[in-house]
Amino acid sequence: MATGTEKVSAAGSARAQRREPEAHDLSTAHLKLIPPAKELRLKIRLEAVRVAANLDRSRPLTKEVLRGRAEQLMQTVGLPPGYLGFTMVAISNEFWREQFMAVDFKRRLLLLPHCLKHTETCPADYDAAGLNCTGCGGCVIADFKLTADELGYKVLVAEGTPAMLKVLTSGEVDAVLGIACLNALERAFDKVLKVGVPSLAVPLLSNDCAATTVDVDWVSEAVKLRAIATPKRTRTYLPLLRAANDMFAESQLHALAPRSRVTPPGDADPIGATESLGYEWLASGGKRFRPFITLAAYDAMNGGKNVRPADMSVPVELPAAVRRVAMAMEVFHKASLLHDDIEDDDTYRYGRETLHRRHGVPTAINIGDYLIGLGYRLVSREAKTLGAEAVNDILERLSQAHEKLAEGQGAELFWRNGGNMEIKPLDALKIYALKTAPAFEAALYAGMRLAGPLDAREPLVAEFSRNLGVAYQIINDLEDWDGDDNNKLVRGQDVLSARPTLLLALAMEKATAAQKHEMREILGDAEKCECAIHRVRQIYAAHHVFEQAETMVRKYRERCEAVAESATPDALRELLSFFVNTLLERDLPPLPPGQ
Ligand code: SF4
User: Fold this and answer.
1) Which atom of ligand 1 is nearest to the CA of 142?
2) Closest CA to 130 of 143, 141, 139
3) In this prediction, what percent of the chain has a pLDDT beyond 70?
4) What are the distances in angstroms from CA 296 to CA 127, 307, 410, 451?
5) Nearest-CA neighbor of 186 among 51, 63, 99, 74?
6) Residue to substitute in 112, 120, 139 for testing ligand 1 pocket (most ligand atoms within 8 angstroms of CB)
7) pLDDT value of residue 82
8) How many Å lie between the centroid of ligand 1 and the Cα of residue 536?
9) Is 298 helix (H, G, I), strand (E, B) or coil?
10) 27 has a pLDDT exceeding 80
11) Buried b (16+ CB within 10 A) or exposed e, 507-520
12) Alpha-carbon dihedral sign for residues 253, 259, 263, 268
């Protein structure tokens, strides 16, 4: 499931620094106003304490519940709808406050936005981790950082989900205090909250993206919140997410998948070169979501005992054989990314030049082939531990996934090379089902099969994965027009690379002959300009393509929810719901026509 979300656009870092308003920012801006009077902000925060007192803390707060409680609070106090975002943050903070306080200072992350800096005079540089504040004293960042550093916090001056999730899944911190505008909080904290990480947030006083301000005393108070005795803890998948991530740290990677060849550092050994590059690529980055799916599915079928607060002193209990099979999911994914990057001639991946740009296409193809072999070996070698039947079932599912992925990718390439640029919505959906669903299905199936035969649950896995994969891909297409902070930052990238998306298919179905001709010309032009992208967007908007796609996401999401609801045992039902809530989150209205 090689999606564009892990690709890094060349324009990425530049755009991150001059954040443009995004489509969904515009559509919900009216709900993200900050009460101008400090007294009113305090009043809302106090009311939030009362509201949060009655919330069930055994499970992460869902956005629906949070929104419902915020609307009730706003009605009670008589607040205008514009303060919805602020009120949701206030309630969420009170939901998590005690659990945040239970985390030692040294295990907390303070995430500061670079837009607080003094734009004209700030001497700090950026690197991969964010802004390196020199402490010149030109803005409040230095003060916050100093206080937090002294207490033992890990401090990042960076924006966006990837930076935060990377620190969380690496196991460095167990709680987050984030300062950000309401737009960024919606994007980043939403995911953290769903995973179940204790998080507090202080909204910036504007969404302006430059020279912003914040309630300094609110931040200071939050930073200094002292540790308290353990309160009731919310269940979280974080330990399993970390377990998936840790498998690719050097020690575990080599313990689980020992290298066959020993290549001394600096030695130009041609025989060992493929293995060395393959392992380097494997350790190089990514969200590790596929191995997480397998680990979590196995855990769910065994009662979900590793879904618990992130206490790293209690190790996650998972057999090595299960970890190896989960590792194979990532190995296959990494192989598909290599081939995908070559086919699309992508420039960057995980913040570096793509492997084929660094080492040449033939070498990159070969590393991908090597990883496919490694992935199959990681599973097949467990025949004695897991039983030949279980291993055979998993291998069968993996090989099916490989075939389907290649067919889906092949269909896309065939379409691109075909030249007439016509595609029907049904064909686009078929391609999505082939390209996106099988990898998810294989990871989910493998995890469940590791716990025992699936029997009557087999159809459930296929149906859930198909609907989830298609919905996920449509969301990906829609986000391509939002711009997003998940690395893929150039709007209309799918048009730039002439992909056969559902949006294009829906537009082609309704467009006039002249518009069809225009779109074909634009897609076929190798040097597409910004105005051409804008024109395609206008045509999409004129035919309500975005709204149609949103409706389809809702339909597929409802199907996923229905399947999840029917799943047993409870731990599996909860896991499937978690996938729906984390992967299919898109509850914002589409672009109004003409924008
Ligand atoms: S305090 Fe840090 S972030 Fe603020 S202006 Fe100085 S160097 Fe830049």
Assistant:
1) 1
2) 141
3) 86
4) 34, 8, 31, 11
5) 63
6) 139
7) 92
8) 41
9) helix
10) no
11) bbeebeeebbebbe
12) negative
Check pLDDT > 60 for residue 527: yes
Task: Please report, as a single letter, which amino acid is at residue 575.
Answer: L
pLDDT at residue 23 above 60? no
Look at residues 77, 84, 67, 70 and name the one whose alpha carbon lies nearest to residue 30: 84
Position 572 pLDDT exceeds 80: yes
Greatest extent of the chain over all pairs of C-alpha atoms, in Å: 72
Do 268 and 276 form a contact (C-beta atoms < 8 A)?
A: no
Cα 466 to Cα 291, 469, 470, 474, distances in angstroms: 19, 5, 6, 12
Q: How far apart are CA 507 and CA 548, in angstroms?
A: 10
Which residue carries 């990314």 as its tokens?
A: 337
Task: From 112, 133, 143, give the residue whose CB has the most ligand 1 atoms within 8 Å, as the site to mutate.
Answer: 133
How far, in Å, from the CA of 143 to the mean position of ligand 1?
Answer: 9
Chain segment 104-143, per-residue pLDDT in tens: 999 999 999 888 887 778 888 887 778 888 888 888 999 9
Q: Mean pLDDT for the chain?
A: 85
d(CA 347, CA 9) in angstroms, rounded, equals: 8
Helix then strand then coil, % of the chain, to nearest 5:
65, 5, 30
Q: Which domains does the chain have, with CATH numbers?
A: 4-223 (no CATH), 236-386 (1.10.600.10), 404-595 (1.10.600.10)
Please name the amino acid found at residue 225: L
136 Cα–ligand 1 center, Å: 5
Amino acid at position 171, single letter: G
- Alpha-carbon distances, residue 258 vs 374, 377, 460, 544 (angstroms): 11, 11, 35, 53
CB-based pocket (< 6 A), ligand 1? 117-118, 122-124, 133-139, 141-142
Residue showing tokens 């003060």: 143
| Distance, C-alpha 212 to centroid of its chain | 26
List the single range of 259-273, 295-309, 338-352, 539-553 with lowest mean pLDDT.
259-273
pLDDT in tens, 263-300: 666 666 788 889 989 999 998 888 899 999 999 999 99
pLDDT on residue 480: 82
Residue 263 is predicted with a pLDDT of 66
Give the integer Cα–Cα distance in Å for 123 and 135.
Answer: 9
CB atoms within 10 A of CB 161: 19
- Distance from the alpha carbon of residue 138 to the mean position of ligand 1, in angstroms: 5
Contact 70, 91 (CB under 8 A): yes
Atom 8 of ligand 1, nearest CA residue = 122
**Three-class SS of residue 308?**
coil
- Beta-strand pair 154-157/130-132: unpaired
Determine if residue 159 is left, alpha or beta; phi over 0 gives left, psi from -120 to 50 gives alpha, anything else beta. Answer: beta
Q: What is the dihedral of CA 29, 35, 41, 47, to 10 degrees?
A: -70
**What are the tens digits of pLDDT across the range 409-421?**
999 888 888 766 7
| pLDDT band at residue 62 using 50, 70 and 90 as cut-offs | confident
pLDDT band at 400; cut points 50, 70, 90: very high
Q: Is the pLDDT of residue 547 over 60?
A: yes
Q: How far is the CA of 113 from the centre of ligand 1 (A)?
A: 11
Single-letter residue type at 297: A
pLDDT exceeds cutoff 80 at 586? no
The Cα 188–Cα 112 span in angstroms is 13
